[in-house]
Write a structure and sequence with these properties.
Largest sheet of chain B: 7 strands, mixed
Low-confidence stretches of chain A: none
Strand order of the largest sheet of chain B: 30-33-34-39-38-37-36
Structural class of chain A: alpha+beta
Strand order of the largest sheet of chain A: 2-5-6-10-9-8-7
Number of strands of chain B: 43
Strand content of chain A: 15-25%
Structural class of chain B: alpha+beta
Radius of gyration of chain B: 42 Å
Mean pLDDT of chain A: 91
Order of helices and strands of chain A: HHHHEHEEHEHEEHEEEHEHHH
Shape of chain A: rod-shaped
Number of strands of chain A: 10
Largest sheet of chain A: 7 strands, mixed
Low-confidence stretches of chain B: none
Helix content of chain A: 40-55%
Distance between the termini of chain B: 89 Å
Mean pLDDT of chain B: 93
Shape of chain B: elongated
Radius of gyration of chain A: 43 Å
Oligomer: heterodimer
Number of helices of chain A: 12
Strand content of chain B: 25-35%
Chain lengths: 347, 784
């Protein structure tokens, strides 16, 4: 009987080895362990044995059952694992194909710059104010201390609609509106971004329409040092913490004193390169202390109040920040140009 | 304004200063420059003497020469027609850099050539300054020129120049003397103004001549006389300074007037006295009056032009250009010298129409009264010296107002509070001294006498600017304004929409507000158009009312560059006029064509439903969920009549979307325009949470076959109307078109918020819906 069990196990292992499908494994199982199996008949025969023989054969049958089951389960698990692997492999995909979805859209580069500036100034407590682009001559020039026949009107040849109405040539008109609208004549901190228009032919550095942002602070004891600190914050926010600024005296009519403001060249750090024409500085904006005539015309007593104002061209900033060499790109809107700006900007 | 270092050095000692340093220092005090350089951009040029000159055997015009340049004798091949033995010429030594290139040792048709003989043109002088002879042939020096000497120095052209772009308030810097004061302030150097010395004759000029000023636009008019002038070439120093400053030398008399203008800033006019007669007047022109100006052109004058006239007619356009008839010519004997003040605004008007000149530019910006007198004195002096004139003793003067000395008081505290600095009285005093402003100090109060040349300084703040300019404001410590602050306010409505649309895969564009009148007709809007006066071009003559035509232009631009997939939007202003008011509205425009979905195997092109989906997404985002509707729009001429819809929000028509008419674009191009100003006026409630039902819902699907014209939104409405409140929502989720019929599949969700639904209750409603829809639309129910 012992010999029969040993042969049986040998044959069973052989059969298991030769089986490769899950269904066939069931056949093997019933062949060796089923009702009609030799193992079952051995178990039946055991009834006629003496109790001592029963004991020793019982050990042998247990041993057979354990060995068979272990051998069988191992094989079955392997078959199942193989089958799963096969199925998974059939589901292989090319993970290098592009993902599906909508293409990445973009904000216009001018919007990027404008947003950065707006957020900075709002964080410093400035209001962002917008005003009409069709303006009165009074708001755009007269109240800004630039009367008719003033030489400064030369610099900004204007699109007129009637003798008195025009397309604003500067967003300063919004400053005038804000000062006039402040009936209590309390302090003002505001910036005004928006489109402006001048009679220029469009080329790589000129555009008859462009975007400006001006700023105005009016209160008692506002000084040039405050202007300097404010513009330094702006230069840092736009061009990085290492940026320096310098003031060059200039003339604008609505400010006195007036200054052009240069930033240290962010390409060469001020050593001199083609971008800054080897000067190390790049002019980015005009600024100054609000002219007493402007304050007076807008209802603020210049003996009590002072203020500073500045104005910056958004296109110019964008050109320097992103390395754009032709201003017309902003308005032709080639989608290949626009796609450059389809991401979040780092500060 | 061109700064000539030699010219300015006559009045302030800056000979040893580097030209680039001067330029940079001037920039720091507010005077920007374009370029600083030597007048002649060439080097290694010496005086040489031609000691041998033979014809080149291989050429009919080349000469083979030996030229003594001092240290050595050079073999030079030269093709100039005036080359001959014995003349002294400009020699560019080997290695010399000329505007046209570098001179190298070479062999020309077999003959060695170690250098080049130069014409003045080859030195880079503008041709307008040169004669035909100067351009064609090499320059010949007088025989006393020293061989081996620096040729540029010998020519007197060893000048350095800075091209300044001055601000319009600094009229004082439009003169060499004015520039000398500015540079003097920077370097703390004293300025020496020119003095005049000349002899005069008593000739009764004042009695024989009548001067009559009949307009307020000339407050000072001086008339002098120079007799028996000799018209000839100017001395070199005058010519060279005119050339350095960009003015063409003509003859000694004309050159002297220009020289004095450059020196003092006062434009002058010299008349041929014998052609003027015994009367000279200043008056406003008659309307339509004619005058032939110096350039030979007949000008038609207007009431706003100031003219100089004699007994008979206008003889000059005051401050702008003289008349041809009384011009100084080679035959002129006697000269009337005009040195006068004219009103800047009037000159500006005239010059804008007629001609911008060096003279008009100075009058427009204003001239120091004292320079008017100085220029008269200088004229007499120089005409005597360089035109052999005999000067009449009398000067006829007309003056309508006395000039006053400007005195401005300012305290140290005011200066410091505006600049945000801590300057001492010594520092401020030093600045005023450097500028040549006389001032006295009482405590911390400065009483400053502003020199008449500084027309730009009228108020305290101007003095503050001067202190900041000369002392420098870079020393100011940066601070931030201390203002009682409330949180900054910003309206982010438009920005949020932009971020939404860009996140939905669209590119933001920005286009021009000025468009052509014809583009307005593309999508006509029945409002009054705003036109620009005197537009530069027709394409930019009116303010746009719609963004669509701008977007179409951008589409065409991109298509021409083979950019096929375009999904763009713009948020911009549109304009019109109503009851005399100028109205500005924000509009949103979209344009989509090509593919919009990324990835492979889905060459799915944009269709109506993509752009509609974006608009629905946006309207939901803005809080209008379930408050908008789309209606058939077939009245827009340039839109596809069956693929266009009006967008209705809360009953307001806020825009449209659809396909551009195929007769305009063969490609499927979809556009949308929404009036954001109007949309925004439709209120939206706050964002709120609605409790989710605790009871399960039951979903049922239904398919019907309809006629093609049936609108799904009508069916949905009728499904809802035909059922009780337990029909929670209806959604169409499939469309299938065969021939003239289409089947639509709806998904119905039933939900009772108070109890669990029974199958019977749902089926009762479900069957009601089927009955209603099959009957109303004559639709066939499809088996699911």
């Amino acid at each position: 009987m012992k010999e029969r069990l040993e042969n049986l196990l040998k044959n069973a292992k052989l059969d298991i080895d030769q089986t490769s499908e899950e269904v066939d494994m069931n056949l093997v199982k019933s062949k060796y362990m089923g009702k009609n199996s030799e193992f079952t008949s051995i178990m039946k025969e055991m009834g006629s044995l003496s109790s001592e023989e029963k004991k020793s054969i019982g050990l042998l049958t247990n041993e057979f059952r354990t060995s068979f089951t272990e051998y069988f389960e191992n094989k079955l698990n392997k078959i199942k694992a193989d089958a799963l692997n096969k199925r998974l492999e059939s589901e292989r995909i090319d993970i290098s194909l592009p993902g599906k979805g909508v293409k990445t859209g973009s904000l216009h580069p001018l919007t990027h710059i404008r947003t950065t500036l707006e957020d900075l100034f709002v964080s410093m407590g400035y209001d962002v104010v917008e005003g009409p682009q069709v303006e009165t001559d009074d708001n755009c020039f007269e109240k800004l201390n630039i009367p008719k026949d003033h030489p400064a009107r030369d610099m900004q040849d204007t699109f007129y609609i009637t003798d008195e109405m025009l397309l604003r040539s500067q967003t300063s008109s919004v400053q005038v509106r804000t000062m006039l609208a402040n009936k209590e004549k309390t302090s003002i901190k505001m910036v005004c971004p928006g489109k402006v228009y001048r009679r220029d032919d469009d080329d790589a550095t000129h555009s008859h329409q462009f975007m400006q942002m001006e700023g105005l602070v009016v209160d008692k004891n506002i000084s040039l040092a405050d202007l300097k600190g404010t513009l330094l914050e702006m230069a840092h926010a736009l061009l990085g913490e290492n940026t320096n600024i310098r003031f060059r005296p200039s003339y604008f009519g609505f400010t006195e004193p007036s200054y052009e403001v240069d930033v240290s060249c962010f390409k060469c750090g001020g050593k001199g390169c083609p971008l800054c024409k080897n000067i190390g500085w790049i002019e980015i904006l005009g600024s100054g202390m609000v002219h007493p005539n402007v304050l007076r015309m807008c209802g603020y007593d210049p003996e009590i109040y002072t203020g500073f104002a500045f104005g910056v061209g958004i296109e110019r900033l964008a050109m320097f920040k992103y390395g754009i060499t032709d201003l017309r790109n902003f308005y032709t809107n080639d989608v290949r140009f626009l796609d450059n700006f389809n991401r979040k900007d780092v500060k | 304004m061109i700064f000539s270092k030699k010219f300015v050095s006559d009045y302030v000692d800056i000979k040893d200063k580097d030209i680039n340093e001067i330029a940079e220092n001037m920039t720091r005090v507010g005077n920007e420059y374009d370029e600083a350089s030597s007048l002649i951009k060439a080097n290694k040029l010496v005086v040489g003497e031609v000691i041998e000159c033979d014809m080149h055997p291989e050429s009919d015009h080349l000469h083979i020469t030996k030229i003594n340049v001092g240290k050595e004798v050079l073999d030079i091949v030269c093709g100039a027609p005036n080359m001959r033995k014995g003349i002294k010429v400009i020699v560019a030594l080997p290695g010399a850099i000329l505007p046209g290139g570098t001179i190298k040792e070479s062999t020309i048709r077999g003959a060695k050539s170690n250098g080049m003989c130069c014409s003045l043109a080859e030195l880079g002088l503008d041709k307008k300054f040169l004669t035909e002879k100067d351009i064609e042939g090499i320059h010949e020096f007088p025989q006393d020129a020293l061989v081996g000497e620096d040729a540029i120095k010998y020519l007197g052209l060893d000048d350095e120049i800075i091209n300044f772009e001055l601000t319009s308030n600094r009229s004082d810097l439009l003169s060499a003397i004015g520039l000398a004061y500015e540079v003097g302030a920077i370097y703390n150097l004293k300025v020496k103004e020119p003095t005049s010395e000349y002899k005069t004759v008593k000739d009764n000029f004042a009695n024989s001549m009548t001067l009559k000023v009949e307009t307020d636009n000339s407050s000072l008019f001086l008339l002098g006389k120079a007799n028996n002038v000799t018209i000839t070439e100017s001395p070199d120093f005058i010519k060279n300074r005119l050339i350095a400053c960009g003015i063409r030398p003509i003859n000694n008399v004309v050159d002297i007037s220009n020289y004095i203008m450059l020196e003092t800033g006062q434009p002058l006019h010299y008349y041929d006295a014998d052609k003027v007669g015994e009367y000279l007047g200043v008056r406003m022109a008659k309307d339509g009056e004619k005058l032939v100006t110096l350039d030979g052109q007949e000008r038609t004058l207007t009431l706003s032009d100031i003219v100089i006239c004699n007994k008979n007619e206008a003889i000059g356009l005051a401050g702008v250009m003289g008349g041809l008839d009384t011009e100084v010519t080679e035959n002129t004997k006697n000269i009337l010298i005009e040195s006068a003040q004219f009103d800047g605004a009037s000159i500006r008007k005239t010059s804008k129409r007629i001609l911008r000149s060096e003279a008009s530019n100075r009058f427009e910006k204003g001239i120091d009264v004292n320079r008017t007198y100085l220029a008269m004195e200088r004229s007499k002096d120089l005409l005597e010296k360089y035109a052999n004139a005999t000067i009449s003793e009398d000067t006829i003067e007309y003056k309508s107002k006395e000039s006053e000395e400007k005195v401005i008081e300012i305290t140290l505290e005011k200066i410091n509070s505006v600049l945000g600095m801590n300057l001492t009285t010594d520092i401020v005093n030093d600045v005023f001294e450097r500028l040549g402003f006389k001032c006295s100090l009482k405590g911390t109060l400065f009483e400053v006498k502003v020199p008449s040349r500084r027309l730009d300084i009228t108020i305290k703040e101007d003095l503050i600017e001067e202190v900041g300019r000369i002392y420098g404001v870079d020393n100011a410590v940066a601070s931030l304004p201390v203002v009682p602050s409330t949180p900054g306010h910003i309206d982010k409505y438009i920005r949020d929409i932009k971020i939404r649309l860009s996140s939905l895969g669209l590119n933001e564009v920005i286009s021009y507000s000025l468009v052509s009148e014809s583009s307005l007709n593309m999508f006509p809007i029945n409002t009054e158009t705003i036109n620009i006066l005197e537009p530069m071009v027709e394409e930019k003559s009116v303010l746009r009312k719609s963004l669509i035509s701008s977007l179409m232009e951008i589409y065409e631009y991109n298509k021409a560059r083979n950019n096929k997939n375009i999904s763009i939007y713009e948020i911009g202003e549109s304009f019109y006029k109503e009851n005399g008011e100028y109205i500005q509205e924000d509009k949103l425009g979209l344009l989509m064509t090509g593919t919009y979905i990324t990835g492979v195997n889905n060459n799915i092109n944009v269709d109506f439903y993509y752009i509609k989906g974006i608009i629905e997404n946006l309207l939901d985002y803005l809080g209008y969920s379930k408050r908008y509707d789309f209606e058939i729009e077939n009245s827009l001429e340039n839109m596809h009549p069956y693929q266009t819809a009006r967008i209705i929000v809360n009953g307001h028509n806020i825009g449209f979307l659809g396909r551009i008419h195929p007769s305009i674009y063969k490609d499927n191009v979809y556009v949308c325009e929404i009036n954001l100003t109007e949309l925004r006026s439709i209120g939206v409630g706050n964002m709120k949470y609605k409790e989710i039902s605790k009871f399960p819902s039951i979903k049922k699907d239904l398919s019907f076959v309809f006629d093609k014209e049936v609108l799904s939104k009508d069916v949905i409405r009728d499904i809802k109307n035909s059922s009780s409140r337990i029909l929670n929502s209806v959604r169409v989720y499939d469309e299938y078109i065969v021939d003239n019929t289409r089947s639509l599949t709806f998904s119905l969700t039933f939900l009772d918020e108070k109890e669990t639904l029974t199958e019977e209750a749902v089926m009762k409603e479900f069957n009601k819906v089927i009955d209603t829809i099959t009957n109303k639309y004559n639709a066939k129910l499809k088996n699911m």
